[in-house]
Write a structure and sequence with these properties.
Layout lengths: L7 E10 H16 L4 H8 L5 H6 L8 H10 L19 E10 L3 E10 L4 E11 L7 H20 L9 H11 L6 H11 L8 E5 L4 E5 L3 H7 L6
Antiparallel strand pairs: 1-2, 2-3, 3-4, 5-6
Helix pairs in contact: 2-4, 5-7
Length: 233
């Protein structure tokens, strides 16, 4: 493999069955095709922002069924069969794999290799190219979108929207509908983070549960928290 100039490469290893790699490939492809960063998917799922990165780099090898359903919804995957090539003959033998993640000035390259120990060689399974999500080439339009989100969420606070806990994906859907355009999740994240630092009467808190986190007005956080407690016998 030739190394591109000014490219940094990190290698992650995993041993698993082929079907797991097929599902992994479809998941990664779907995220990239929807122009979402791992942080944005994690945010929309209501998970820690490093959640998807941990999955993509094999630090998390399996997730709860609930998290899988939420991930499918965020990535707009309608059913599990869409994650696997129909008619593809799948081997249930475990293989060793290496994921090479190369970061360049404007893009990230994902290359997955199956390690053939007997032949002492690497066989490429797939190569996918993503953009650098930490670089914003559209500064002016981003600033304009953030301003619109700020105004909308201020209006929603006044209207009592955050008196109930709201999931990140729910807030994102509201912004897209009310602003009549697709909103970049990273821009919504920015505005919500600002509201976490707001004044006491208008401050929003991030409420954590066993399934993920949501946002609610600080003044209503206590009553919302009680809703998640098991009723007394």
């Amino acid at each position: 493999m030739k190394k591109v100039k000014n490219q940094s490469i990190k290698i992650y290893k995993r041993k698993c069955e082929e079907i797991e790699i097929l599902i992994y490939y479809r998941m990664l492809l779907q995220r990239i095709s929807r122009h979402l960063s791992p942080k944005e998917v994690s945010f929309l799922m209501g998970k820690p922002l490093d959640f998807m990165t941990s999955i993509e780099t094999f630090k998390i090898k399996s997730i709860l069924a609930y998290d899988s359903l939420v991930m499918h919804r965020v990535l707009e995957i309608n059913n599990l069969s869409a994650m696997v090539h129909l008619g593809h003959k799948i081997s249930f033998q475990e293989n060793a794999y290496e994921l090479h993640v190369g970061t360049l000035a404007d893009r990230v390259i994902y290359e997955l290799y199956k390690i053939d120990v007997e032949q002492d060689q690497k066989v490429m399974e797939f190569k996918l190219i993503d953009i650098r999500h930490d670089i914003d080439p559209h500064t002016n339009s981003t600033m304009n979108e953030v301003k619109k989100i700020r105004i909308l969420l201020d209006e929603q606070i006044d209207a009592g929207y955050f008196k109930e806990e709201r999931q990140p994906s729910e807030i994102h859907a509201l912004c897209c509908v009310e602003l009549k355009q697709y909103i970049q999740p990273k821009n919504l994240m920015l505005v919500l983070d600002e509201l976490l630092q707001g004044g006491e009467e208008r401050r929003i808190v991030r409420h954590q549960t066993e399934y993920g986190f949501g946002y609610v007005l600080a003044a209503h956080a206590k009553s919302t928290e009680n809703c998640f407690k098991d009723p007394k016998p």
